[in-house]
Amino acid sequence: MPDLADGESSTMQGSGASPYVLKNTGGVYSCSCPAWRNQSIAIEKRTCKHLRKLRGDAAETARVGSDAPPARAPKPTAIGGAAPTAKAGAKDTAPPVLLAHSFAEMQPPVDPTGWWMSEKLDGVRAWWDGTQFLSRLGNAYLAPAWFIAGLPDFPLDGELWLERKQFQRCVATVRRQDRGEGWRKIRFVIFDAPALDQPFEQRLAHCQTWCNDRKPEFASFHPHEPCRDETHLRSELARVEALGGEGLMLRQPGSRYIAGRSTSLLKVKSFKDAEARIVGHSAGAGRHAGRLGALEVELPDGTRFSVGTGLSDAERQEPPAIGEIITFRYQELSDDGVPRFPSYVGVREDAVWKPQPRRTRAKKP
Known about the structure:
Layout: E1 9-12, E2 20-25, E3 28-31, H1 34-37, H2 49-55, H3 57-64, E4 98-102, E5 116-120, E6 124-128, E7 133-134, E8 140-141, H4 145-148, E9 156-161, H5 167-174, E10 187-192, H6 200-214, E11 219-221, E12 225-226, H7 230-242, E13 247-251, E14 260-268, E15 272-283, E16 292-298, E17 304-307, H8 313-317, E18 325-330, E19 343-347
Parallel strand pairs: 4-14, 10-11
Antiparallel strand pairs: 1-2, 2-3, 5-12, 5-13, 6-7, 6-9, 7-8, 9-10, 13-14, 15-16, 15-18, 16-17, 18-19
Helix pairs in contact: 2-3
């Protein structure tokens, strides 16, 4: 059967007037048809009748497992041996990751004095379960054997990170299926040892000691420092953002590792971010003529708008597919609930789309 080499694309006529585009990007096969785009599973596990016609049923079944949506990685053991306290559905198969609240939205406001402060890394959150990396939804990241060599047999929480302002390149590398050389630029930055039933300070010290003793080639410890007061927090936030960083994280002193969203972990940023689903592509004009001008997106509540900034030239030439979920940044919401000055950040690999009813907003007098 014919196949596509890495980076190669082909077209196939479907039921519509325009042919569908089939691509191979690092072993991740895609098709522009609605059947491929609208599957609510990781893109590397999607298939469709056009890919099966091109590559053959045997090759596609070997790649994705079966015709049915694949099962995620086996359910990890929860902290302390108990079952994870997660809601039914996709989260049942995901690792019991600690998730953050927004510092700016806390009521009453939190005094950050004494909290542990660190830079918020713009990479890919990863849970090391002792044998492999998992996303927060339980999908495996296929790291090369030389990358994971020397990592421990106990769980670690951290970030697969490239460098500041390289989020999309990092995502593109870790979602590939070829365990390629691109991983040599990635680091696993460790910031917690979830299975250790101790206050955060002891868990942090455990991570630092392990890194100092073992000196893993592709892993490192993420430094933290105590916050003196809110002035210190704001000055550190300004410093990190001036360097191109995303923001800061705050950990409550003495806090335990809790599965799910907790006010013991707070994210501090000068901007807001959210997720949207791509519903269309708008053609560019002027210097963007002949390529993407803006992504047409919708929020979970159905609010639609355009995201035209933050996209690289390469992304405008080959934009993310309709149906993909993206992260974007914005300043505030309008009275109609539309994000002001949205800017594209990247495709979310580990997100599940959950439509929500649209909220009625009271207009300002």
